Every structure is written in structure tokens, then in C-alpha cells.
Amino acid sequence: MTEVASGLQVQLHYQRGDFALNVDISVPPRGITALFGPSGAGKTTCLRAIAGLDPDIEGRIVFAGDVWQDSSTRRLVPAHRRRIGYVFQEASLFPHLSVSGNLDYGRRRAGRNLPVDREAWLERFGVNHLLARKVDRLSGGERQRVAIVRALLSDPVLLLLDEPLSALDASARSELLGYLEQLHAELAVPTIYVSHAIDEVARLADHLVVMDAGSVLSQGSLQATLARGELPLAMSDQLGVAIEGQVVAQDPVDHLIELAFEGGRLWLPQRAERVGDRLRCRISARDVALSTGAPAAGSSALNVLEAVVVGMMDAAHPSQCIVRLDVHGTVLLASITRRSLRTLALAPGSRVWAQVKATALGT
Amino acid sequence: MAGLSAEDWAAFALTMRLAVTVTVLLLLLGTPLAWWLARGRTAWRRPVSALVTLPLVLPPTVLGFYLLLLLGPQGAGGRLTTALGLGTLPFTFAGLVVASMLYSLPFVVQPLQNAFEAIGQRPFDVAANLGAGPLDRFFSVALPLAWPGFLTAAVLGFAHTVGEFGVVLMIGGNIPGQTRVLSMRIYDHVEASEYLQAHALSLYLLAFSFAALLAMHLLRPRRLMAHD
Questions:
Q1: Is the Cβ of B41 closer than 8 Å to some Cβ of chain A?
Q2: Do residue A270 and residue A325 come from a single domain?
Q3: A24: domain range?
Q4: A325 falls in which pLDDT band (50, 70, 90)?
Q5: Domain B6-114+143-227 carries which CATH code?
Q6: Is the dihedral of CA A288, A289, A290, A293 positive or negative?
Q7: Of B105, B118, B121, B116, which is closest to residue B50 (Cα–Cα)?
Q8: Least CA distance to B135: which residue of chain A?
Q9: Whole-number pLDDT of residue A162
Q10: How far apart are CA A173 and CA A203, in angstroms?
Q11: Around Cβ A101, how many Cβ atoms within 10 Å?
Q12: Does B123 touch chain A (CB under 8 A)?
């Protein structure tokens, strides 16, 4: 068997009670790969195995050509030799150390002449003023930021983030999302991000692994995987696609921006974006309505895209179905009722107009 | 101090020497044992755990009796110590140390084991991912987080050794300067109807035990709150 020389290959087999895990995951050497799925899907179990924290899990884990685990040859590189930065769901700072003691714990053990710029990371995550504090004097968001910087300072080759936002309140969550987005832009280290919130995933991830009940439903690039529409049934209300494009115009009077993407153009509510910015936006399947005639005057819909029906899928509720559309090369998903499907007589090849409500992602 | 004779003072000094020796040795030996009991993964943990706690329920005289047989000239332990040129241990200070260590073992191991267990797995996982090997994790995570347990273990081990009687009676005898500890001395005074002297020693022992436990309780909760 030939190894892919870079990236992370993970094959795991594990059975405990009625939970079975059987996965084969491939993580590219760059960017953020999201492990997405409902709780109980086995996401954290995968992460612990990758980190070497659960040696009972059988399988084979290869990172950048290094075999970290191979149950067939009983090879197992212990966790402390894998150089992994692991950020847990709730920040696990050492209670007996100050913030700076925590930050330097991994850094001191990484030895060598670290290429990591301590000051720069402290600055970037705004933890400079916290250094002398005791960890129980930090807010939830501050703890998580310290935990992330602590992981970064240990000069990891792989970063694992296990739902780092889930224990935070809404404002701390959106603040940390901003930090993570910035991290994404500046960090060369491959990152695995576990989440069950599609908005986080769509905003941060480049690659997506969809998991359910211990197996992988679908994996690949974020856009392609979302467009495949293969989410666990319990999460089908989160179906939708992510579209990337460039801001080409703005309307300061109506506070709108126009995004140009491969399949056309969309008007979005303006936030801080400017003309020329790259922007990712999410179009939830629920926010797409279909009509067979060209839009008449008098519709409130701002964005109407001409599309061709490619196929249909079942939705979670029997009254609904998911229609897959092709908009000049870009896939769009629409959730409509089965009755509408029948009334409009939609079939693969049908020409439709999709009325779209899009929301930009990011700050 | 009033009311104490030279012999009382000798018993006091011997008791302190015994308790310090036993506490130090027990902390050294009990720490790896407690660590293994708290975090080991073998099936042996439970029987060993039961064995360690046995002195809690066993009458001290029973423990002393078996030790006497084991360490005596005819016992396996006695033959071993004789072969090593150490002579036999009963009725010596060394014998008293060995017996007291067994007797006080659960009082040191249990708090340590509880403290190690209370840390949970997470801090060790974090430390491992930050590059700390097993020994490093023990010293940089387990020891500092378990220190209230060490305090409890030391105080309980010390106080319990000071207060023992039955084991001393069986294996130590009552040799002045060798094995005549405070509890024996009090017993002597009572036997000789010297109630005043018995009172003085007993009061000192009572005050000492209370002070030790009070110190432990004063030091503990603050630290636990800081853990949050």
C-alpha cells in the first residue's frame, strides 16, 4: 500500500457496547477540515484516536508519511510524541498554573529553537493582558483563547479543535469565531475542527467530513460535500450550500452588496464588506423557493437565478423533498413540499427560477 | 513542661522519631502504590486495594500477632532478615517501623489514591498533547494537583502512628528508648495508678492530635476552592 506523503490518513475500527465506529478519513495537508455530525456520531472518538489518547481504538493513522498507529504491527506513537495541539470543548487549563504558566507548558517541552513567535500569537489572540492572571479569573472566551494559544505555542504539526465554541455564550462565540477565522488565514498547520453547527463549519472549513452513527456519510471539499446534500437525517434542516465569490458592487442606500460567483450574482445585506473582498455565503435549502415561470413583476424576491433541476432527494419530513439545481455550474439545494413538486411537475431537466435568500458568512 | 518525667520525655521523643520515620517512608512508598491503584489498568488493582485497606478493619493485635510470627526467628521474614545480617525485627525500633508502616498504610494510601482519582483524565491528556511524557506528567500535573491529598496523607499517617497501641504491644514490647512509645507509657502509668502522669501525657496527645487535624482542615478547603 502506498502512502500519501502528506496529510493525514485515518482508518479506525472500534466497538464498545452498541456504539461502533468504522471510518476512513482523509485530511488534506492544508486548511481546516471539519468533522461534522450530530452528537454521538463518533467525532470526538476520532479526534482522541488521532491524538493518541485512546490506544484501545484499533486502526491505522498516518500523518505526513509517519505511521502514528498501526494496529496490525502494534505500532503506537504515544500522544506526547505526536506534537498535536488539542483544544478541548471546555478549556482545560491547568488550575495550578497561571495563564503564562499554562501558555509556556507546551512551549517549554517542545524544546529546540521554536519557529513560533510567542509575542505575535499573544498579541493576535488578545491574551497579553491576561498573563499574570489565575485561570479561574478568566471568562469562558478568554479561557478558550488561552487554550488555543497554548496549543499553538507548542509548535504543533496538527491542530485538533473539539467544538471549541460550544461551551460559550453567543457573544463570546462570535468573538472567538472571528479569532478562528483569522487563524485560518494565517496558519499553515492542518486543522481538524469538530462541530455540529453548520454555520461554524460553512464559515471556517475548507474540507468537510460528514459523520453519523460511527461512519462517514460523505467527505471532500466543503462546497462539493455540502452540495451533495448528504447530511444525517436528524440534521437535514441544516441542508444548504456554501458559495464563494467576490464583492463586485455595493448599494450604500439600501445597504446591500452584490456578490459575483461562478453561476451568477447575488445581492446580500452589507456588513463590513467592501468591493473586491472575497466572501463566502451560505444558502440554506429552506431559503430557496422555486417557480417554473419567469419571475413576474411584483415579487419581493431580490435574487432570482435561472436553474436546471438535476435531481431529487428525500428530506427528513415526508411532506418535503430536496431538489438539486444547477445554476450555470454551481449547485444549489432547495427544500420544497412534495405537493409543489407534483404541481410544478418538476423532473430532472426542468427549467426553473430559484428565488434565493443568501446570508454572508463572517464578520 | 510540667508533669513530665525524663522517661516520659524519652517516650515522647521516640514516638516522634517513629512517626516521622514511618510518615516519610510511607509517603515515598505509598505514592507510587496509590498512583497505581488510582490509574492502573490491571485486574490486580481490586485485590491489592482490599489488602491495603485491611488494617482499617483488622484488630491491631491480629496484625501484630501475625507480624510477630512472620518476623520472628522461625518466620520466613525473620529468616530473611537474619540471613541478611539484620537479626530479627520484633522488639526493635526497626520492627516497630515496619509494623507501624503496615498499620498506617491505608491512612496514607487512601487520601493519595482519592486525590489522584479526583484529578480525572483530562489534565493528563492535555499535558500529553503538550509534549509531556509519563514521568513529566506525574511531576508537573499529578503532584501539584494532588497536594491536598499529600497533606492529608501525611497528617493522618503521622497522627495514626503516634496513636497506635496494639501493634506496638505485640511486636515492640515495652523497651525504654527502643520501643516504649507514648501510648505504652500512658498504659504503664495507668497500670501503676499514676493517674496524674497519665493525664498529662494523654492531654498532650489529645491536644497534638486535635492541632494536627485542625491544621489539615484549615489548609485544605482554601486550596480546593481555588481549584474551582
A1: no
A2: yes
A3: 8-228
A4: very high
A5: 1.10.3720.10
A6: negative
A7: B105
A8: A80
A9: 94
A10: 13
A11: 16
A12: yes
Q: What is the 3 state secondary structure string of A232-278?
A: CHHHHHHCEEEEEEEEEEEECCCCEEEEEECCEEEEEECCCCCCCCE
Would you call B141 an interface residue with chain A, using a CB distance cutoff of 8 Å?
yes
Give tens-digit pLDDT for A185-196: 888 899 999 998
The pLDDT-based confidence of A36 (bands split at 50, 70, 90) is: very high
Q: What is the mean pLDDT of residues B149-170?
A: 89
Nearest residue in B to A103, CA atom: B130
**How do beta strands A158-162 and A84-87 pair?**
parallel
Cβ of A78 and B129 within 8 Å? no
Flag whether residue A94 sits within 8 Å of chain B, measured between CB atoms: yes
Contact B131 A96 (CB under 8 A): no
- Is A2 domain-assigned? no
Mean pLDDT of A93-107: 93
- The alpha carbon of residue A37 is apart from the nearest alpha carbon of chain B, in Å, by 23
**Interface mutation vs chain B, best among A53, A96, A162, most B CBs within 10 Å:** A96
Q: Would you give the end-to-end CA distance of chain A in angstroms?
A: 44
Same domain, A291 and A192: no
Number of domains in chain A: 2
Tell whether the torsion through CA atoms of A281, A350, A313 and A207 is positive or negative. negative
**From B129, B140, B226, residue closest to A79, measured CB to CB:** B129
Instruction: Compute the average pLDDT of residues B200-220.
Output: 85
User: Nearest Cβ partner of A80 from B133, B145, B228?
Assistant: B133
A64 contacts chain B (CB < 8 A): no
